[in-house]
Every structure is written in C-alpha cells, then in structure tokens.
TrEMBL record:
UniProt keywords, alphabetically: Hydrolase, Lipid degradation, Lipid metabolism
Top-level lineage group: Bacteria
Lipid metabolism is among the record's keywords: yes
InterPro entries, per database record: Acyl_Trfase/lysoPLipase, NTE, PNPLA_dom
Motif placement: GXSXG: 85-89
GO biological process: lipid catabolic process
Protein name: Patatin-like phospholipase family protein
Active site annotation, chain numbering: S87, D203
Gene3D superfamilies listed in its UniProt record: Cytosolic phospholipase A2 catalytic domain
PNPLA domain residues: 54-216
Keyword DNA repair: no
Entry GO MF terms: hydrolase activity
Amino acid sequence: MLLILKRNSHWKWVRIVPVVICLMLSACVATAPLAPAVVVAPIVKPIKSLRIGLALGGGAARGFAHIGVIKALESQGIAPDIVVGTSAGSVVGAMYAAGNNGFALQKLALEMDEAAISDWSLPLFSKTSGVLKGEALQAYVNKIVLQVPIERLRKPFGAVATDLITGQPILFQRGNTGLAVRASSSVPGVFQPVRINERQYVDGGLVSPVPVMFAREMGADLVIAVNISSQPEVQAAGSLDVLMQTFTIMGQRLNYFELRGADIVIRPELLGMRGNDFAGRNLAILAGERAAMANMAELKQKIRAMQER
C-alpha cells in the first residue's frame, strides 16, 4: 500500500506510517499466545484439634446447677471431651460421662428420690464415724451408669477424693464408678470414710473444691470450671450447718488459687440455696443454664482463638 503513493503525496505517507505500525503491532499482540494466569490460592490455616475439659465443683444439692450448665453447652454445640468432678460434681460428672445428655440428666434429677441416696447408719450404736454410710449413693450411681467402670465410660472421667491419712488428693480414673463417686462425696462427719485398697478416702472438696488442675492433668487444652460453692453467711447453729459453713470457708481459699487456672469460670447464682435443699433442684438447674449462657460469648471466642493458634 505504501508503494503506490505518488511523490507529491508525501504528507499522506507521513500520516499513514504510524497507523500501519500500530496495525502491525496490534496484529502481533492479537496473535501472540496468552501467558497462563497465575492463581494464588488463599492460605487456609488448619483448625487445631481442641480438647475441652469440664471441671465440676462440689456443693451438695447445689450440684444440680451442673446439669443446667451441661444443657446450655450442648445447646451451643459444645461437647466437653473430659469430665472431672469433686463431690456433687463427681455425681453429675459420672452420669454425664456415661452418655446421658443434659435433658436426660435433668429427667434423672427431677425423678430422684432423696431417700434413694440416704442410707442412715446408727452412729449411736456403731464404732464407725459419720452418719451416712454412702452405700445407697454408690448403688444409685452404678445403676445409672449401668455398672460400667470408670475406664469404660463414654467420656474420660475422673473423681477427686482425699486420702484421709496423708491429706493428699487422689484422682480415680479406674475401677468401680459408684465407689469412686461415693469416696469423692464422703463429707467427714456426714458420710463414713470409704475404704479402697486398705486406704480410707473422704470428700475431695477438702483438697480440690473445683478440680481444674486435674482436668489439665487429664489432657484438657481448655478448661471450663463450674463453681457452685456458697459464700460464707450466717446460718443456723445446727451441727450440720456449722460443718457445712466450715467447708465453705475452707473452700473459698482453695478455689481462689485453683480457679485461676481455668479458661472460663461459670458461677451459677444460687443465693440462699443450702447444700441440703433438694427441693430447689429445678431452680438450681435453671441457674446453671443462665450462668453458662452469660459466659457463652467469651467461651466461644476463646475456643476460636485456641483453634486458630
């Protein structure tokens, strides 16, 4: 096309050359193979497997609040992997570890006959100390867990008791479930000490009112502690009231140190509920649910943070 231009059309030549060059360059670009696009995949951080431990504290009839806590956790899809209990916490913990969910535990609680776990001995005619033998409690727990020993429960479970001779805590993780719970719940002066393998054991609340340390020892990465202990208050001057008040005062100091090791501490509001108030079980369950839900946002945030580390 350029060769047919006349000499007197020099100005056209000058104007057409840039156009031709552009066309040639565009043709080259159009026919050149396209480089493959580089796709950068987003970095997906794997979710860390997290073992959640549930440490259930002692508090006699106030322990019904543990059931409400379990119900609330389950409603939010949180299922503890490890369960450790002291005294009343060991009773609820054993039944939960055996496979009973929160609603099943509530049904058991509301149907429980107090007489079924109270086998009064005759202290005036007996050389043994204590008022309750505790055998009925042992039988009741074993009935609920279908006679399954601790090591065969559906969830890893531990019951905390106190060696009466050495004063050292003991964590039962094997053997007769009901017997371990009975030992963990044997309040001195109320229940007779439990003899296991030539040693005597009493209530675990003497050494570990809320067993956070033992939940860690069993492998928990995150520990949810449930503290149902009452505040010291003026009570009637009956011998049982004085004894329970002594436990309350002692437990306050122990809890101060142990609860610092928990990731979340749930404190059901059980104002005015005494340890022998079995009639208030339904209100205690509701208090446990409310307290757990009040801590749920913080608990979920901590779970996510630990999973993403």
